[in-house]
From TrEMBL:
SUPFAM superfamilies membership: Homeodomain-like
Gene3D superfamilies referenced in this protein's UniProt entry, alphabetically: Winged helix-like DNA-binding domain superfamily/Winged helix DNA-binding domain
Main location: nucleus
GO cellular component: nucleus
Pfam families given in the database record: HTH_29 (PF13551)
Localization terms from the record: Nucleus
Record-given protein name: Paired domain-containing protein
């Protein structure tokens, strides 16, 4: 497992302000205990978009809704030996 953690908006703005003030990326990395790629990517994003916000909706789109997930969970608990294809057929038949 990686030690991936999200930077909060306050820390992101502090990093950008220090970069705008002329502080080097290496100094900021040491001060905030970050890898250089994090600071570099944040700075590039700020220069391109003028924003520090992360883009919503990154990643693979969901295949099922929250309601379908609850239904699958209930069916899987009732029939412990069911395979994923059987659960898929049950979900398709129910909807």
């Amino acid at each position: 497992m990686s030690n991936h953690q999200r930077l909060d908006d306050g820390m992101r703005w502090r990093i950008v302000w220090r970069l705008e003030a002329g502080q080097s990326q290496v100094q900021i990395c040491r001060e905030f205990n970050l890898t250089p790629s994090v600071v570099c990517n944040l700075w590039k994003q700020f220069q391109n978009t003028g924003s520090i916000e992360t883009k919503p909706g990154q990643g693979r789109p969901r295949a099922t809704t929250a309601t379908e997930d609850r239904y699958l969970s209930i069916i899987a608990r009732r029939n412990r030996g069911a395979t994923s294809s059987q659960l898929s057929r049950d979900l398709y038949a129910a909807t």
